[in-house]
Amino acid sequence: MTERTSSFRRLSEMKRWTYILPVIVFIYVICYIDRTNISFALPHLKDDMHLTGAQQGLASGIFFWGYLLLQIPGGYMAERWSAKRWIAILMVLWSVAAMASGLTHTFGQLILARFLLGVAEGGVQPALMTTIRSWFPFAERSRAYAIFKLYTPIAAIVAAPFSGIILTYADWRWMFVIQGGAPLIIGLIAWLAVVRDTPAKAGWLSQNERNYIERSRLDEGEPLKHRGTFKAAFTSKIVWHFALVYTLTQMGLLGLTLWMPSVLKKAFHTDMQVGLVAILPQIAAGIAIIMIGRSADRRGGHVAHMSTVLGAGAVILAGAGLISADQKWLVLIAMILGTAASIAWYGPFWATVTKLTPVAAAGAGMGLINGVGNLGSFFGPYVGGWLSDLNGGGYALTQVFFGAVFGAAALLVLSLRKKLRAATELAGVGARPAGTAEASSR
Fold first, then answer.
1. What would you report as the CA-atom Rg of the chain, rounded to the nearest whole angstrom?
2. What is the spatial distance between Cα 106 and Cα 426, in angstroms, rounded to a whole number?
3. Which residue has the higher pLDDT, 138 or 258?
4. 119-128, 130-139, 223-232, 336-345: segment of lowest average pLDDT
5. Does the N terminus or the C terminus of the chain have fewer Cβ atoms within 10 A?
6. 20: buried, middle or exposed (CB in 10 Å: 19+, 13-18, 0-12)?
7. Contacts with 23 (C-beta within 8 Å, 6 or more apart), sequence order
8. What is the pLDDT of residues 240-291, one digit of tens each?
9. Of 227, 259, 288, which residue sits at a domain end?
10. CA 423, CA 299: separation in Å to the nearest integer?
11. Lowest mean pLDDT segment, chosen from 167-171, 212-216, 264-268
12. Both 274 and 203 in a single domain?
């Protein structure tokens, strides 16, 4: 009976996992769908607005230029003002911009709506990541950020059928309106009802859990309230180091998007087969993210986890060009392993960022890392396309390049080992089994 009561008590004092994270993941799944749904609308926009190929590319890419504007202010505002209020405002603005895309009639109007969508969404991710840092001690952050990153596979699985159903029974205008209205109707209500800036402000949190979160963060040498500055973020060498790593990983992801869809189509022929097998890599990625994040928190060795995963991604991407479409099961295995390796490093990476980034650079620094890193997503396709032209339209050279990019990221991560070890030893943070810290705090 005592053991059962103890287990129930531990579960009741882990509301930070069951309240905060589901809302954050839900919000960013919708955010990600609103960002990418233009790919489903482009064939219809081409006919209705008579868009050229260049205009279609600009309509897709203009989002990222807007996305850069609020990256650094996003983390700063969440830290210095209120993450709850800041994200609520951004959700309203992004919802209006997303729905406005469905009300456009000219190319100029469409570009403006997509640019403003990027501006509004740009401040959301660093603010959400700042919120996670406030609610989870370092010993739990690999798992917390890993769960947050589940938005990628979830959105990839949900986006296509969700958009397809709307386009089947309505048109691209309704797709933008319906998918843009979701965060305003559902996400905003959930966000305002559940999330608070700090554990101290959450009435639904038990006193034991609140004490554990705050005591753990203080024991790890981290103040409960950050007061960062823009200058500290821009002048921090470690922030730029992380930004370079993140840029390389985002470029490396292009290796998957350039090679695998085309080979998958050739290997499995029918749209039905392609649709079914394309889900498997996303499921594998979700499992890998959680496993790596959990392992890093339990065993420590965040750098080892990151470098191993990135190294595996480098080998898979570099060798992918040697696989022909005739080897369809090998194609599928490579796609599963490559997709998993491409994002499973995410949890330990952002946990390490929160540990090594100076307190004065914390909020703005996270925005800078994410913002600069996303430039890799913008420039990667150009580099990949240029290498493909050099290779006569093939992807072998492109894959080697993107594999090398992942390898370079792994080496840069390895250089952080001594710094992270020193930081964790100084603060007395070790690899602790889940629940140990909570048990000892009571």
1. 22
2. 59
3. 138
4. 223-232
5. N
6. buried
7. 187, 190, 191, 194, 195
8. 999 999 999 988 776 666 556 566 666 666 555 666 677 888 899 999 999 9
9. 227
10. 16
11. 264-268
12. no
Whether 300 contacts 352, CB under 8 Å:
no
The answer to whether the beta carbons of residues 80 and 129 sit under 8 Å apart is no
> Looking at the predicted structure, is the pLDDT value of residue 18 above 70?
yes
Residue 41 belongs to some domain of the structure: yes
Record the tokens describing residue 24, joined without a space: 């954050």
Q: Is 227 helix (H, G, I), strand (E, B) or coil?
A: coil
Q: How far apart are CA 233 and CA 122, in angstroms?
A: 17
d(CA 75, CA 128): 8
Burial (CB < 10 A; 0-12, 13-18, 19+), residue 89, is: middle
Interatomic CA distance for residues 44 and 50, integer angstroms: 9
Alpha carbon dihedral 323, 327, 330, 331, in 10-degree steps, equals: 60
Using pLDDT thresholds of 50, 70 and 90, give the confidence band for residue 336.
confident
95 and 234, same domain (yes or no): no
| Measured distance CA(84)–CA(87) in Å, rounded | 6
Spell out where 182-235 has E strands: none
pLDDT tens string 409-424 = 999 999 999 888 888 7
Say if residue 179 is in the same domain as residue 256.
Answer: no
The answer to whether residue 124 is domain-embedded is yes
Q: How far is residue 412's CA from residue 86's CA, in Å, rounded to a whole number? A: 33
Are residues 203 and 91 part of one domain?
Answer: yes
The rounded distance, in Å, linking the Cα atoms of 333 and 339 is 10
Whether residue 110 contacts residue 45, with contact meaning beta carbons closer than 8 Å, is answered with: yes
| Residue 236, in any domain of the structure | yes
Q: Is-contact 264 323, C-beta < 8 A?
A: no
Provide the number of structural domains found in the chain. 2
Helix-, strand-, coil-residue percentages of the chain, each rounded to 5: 85, 0, 15
303 and 284, same domain (yes or no): yes
- State which H helix or E strand residue 359 sits in: none
Q: Hey, is 136 helix, strand or coil?
A: coil
